[in-house]
# Entry
Amino acid sequence: MKQIKETWNLVFNWLGNGKKVMIGIAFLLIGAVWNYFSHPAEGLAQVPFVIMLTGGLCLVNALFSKLTETNINPLLFVLIYVTMMELGIALMGGDTSDFTNLVTIWGACTIFIWALNYALLESAEMDGVVKKIVISFFETLVGAVAMVAIFALPIWLAAMK
# Structure
């Protein structure tokens, strides 16, 4: 078990901010090209959205890894957002008309993302509880903005045609 942990840490220590940025840009481009060629009527298909979201979150991860001078695990960072997004969509069940359910489900998902980002910073061995709480809040906020931008931009571009 110790050898697996050491290997895991070696892989993610090798994966620095520059590589995270390159991976993020590659995922954004692959998702955008895939979405363009799949021609979804609503402007965005789910699989290209998840691929583009992965790229955007890799960029957010690289940004916060640079700002905090720690190596935040990009795999877990992306999995937190994608899992909570899919859970939120499943819990909504397509019913976006009830504002209370919308706020309750997405609010709970956002708070859970915040808590998991805090745990991720804890595992990155960052000092200071308050600092981790504030940084994980801004990680959650910037990740949510990236998610909304990646969701809205293709739909807006499709509406412009």
About this structure: The chain has a mean pLDDT of 85.
